UniProtKB/TrEMBL annotation:
This is NAD(P)H-binding protein. Pfam families: NAD_binding_10 (PF13460). It comes from the Bacteria. It comes from Halodurantibacterium flavum. InterPro entries: NAD(P)-bd_dom, NAD(P)-bd_dom_sf. Residues 7-192 form the NAD(P)-binding domain.
């Protein structure tokens, strides 16, 4: 499988790339700094330099042409304020989806968020803005004819992966490791019968491959 990842140098993106490359899949991705490209190249991953904000859908299409699937796991990461959130978390997935349409790629996995994440806390205005932007990106993607899957992880941590999750159409927001989110994304990529569906995922008791395959055929055909 050939997979292109936007957000490949990030916490989840790096782990998705490593898992795929380790299993012999061909991996590419978008990075903003040449040091990141060199680091990925050393691991057999073909990173392309560019900035999602300034690339046009047509330019992005040329970068992803030839890949079987694309993953969006980029995020403003609390830097740059509302405008950057709008450009990355809000408009980024739509731009990538448009590029995929131009390049003839159907499969797209979007890493999003639980809409009710941290409702029990008093979060600041920027966090609320981020949540709205993430939802807008989901709305835009589900209206496309891409063969999309949206994965909503609960709060991310860097603890070692467990290989186990609690995954389904609606889950209670808790925490999950980036390792387990990456493994879930890879499993979704490997199971094309899981499509046009929003999956919420948090830490849990079920082996990841089993949890993902249980969702096969439940999305809109
Ligand atoms: N943190 C949480 O608890 C949480 C919970 C649920 C969902 N999420 C979502 O899960 C996803 C993955 O999270 P993560 O922790 O892996 O994120 P991360 O480590 O912050 O990685 C995000 C990546 O996006 C890249 N990026 C940002 N702006 C870009 C641009 N203009 N052009 C190209 N690349 C750009 C960054 O590139 P640089 O390396 O150049 O900065 C970075 O590598 C994100 O979409 C996040 O919103 C997070």
């Amino acid at each position: 499988m050939r997979v292109f990842i936007v957000g490949i140098a990030g916490g989840v993106g790096r782990r998705v790339a490593t898992r795929l490359a380790t299993h012999g899949d061909q991996v590419g991705g978008l990075v903003r700094r040449s040091a990141q490209a060199a680091d990925l190249a050393a691991r057999g991953i073909n990173a392309t330099l560019g900035d999602l904000v300034t690339l046009s859908p047509e330019e992005l299409a040329e970068m992803i042409r030839g890949y079987d699937a694309i993953v969006f796991t980029a995020g403003a990461g609390g830097e740059g304020g509302p405008e950057t959130i709008d450009q990355i978390d809000g408009a980024g997935p739509g731009k990538l989806s448009k590029a995929a349409g131009i390049a003839g790629i159907t499969r797209m996995v979007l890493v999003s968020v639980f809409p009710e994440a941290w409702r029990e806390r008093r979060m600041d205005e920027e966090f609320e803005h981020y949540m709205v932007a993430k939802k807008q990106a989901e709305v835009e993607l589900v209206l496309t004819d891409r063969d999309w899957v949206i994965v909503r992880p609960s709060a991310l941590n860097d603890a070692p992966g467990t290989g186990l999750v609690d995954l389904g159409l609606a889950k209670v927001h808790e925490e999950i490791t980036r390792d387990d989110v990456a493994a879930t994304v890879v499993e979704v990529l490997r199971q094309p019968d899981v499509n046009r569906i929003i999956l919420e995922v948090t830490a849990g008791p079920t082996p990841i491959a089993e949890a993902v395959s249980a969702m096969a055929g439940t999305g809109r055909p």
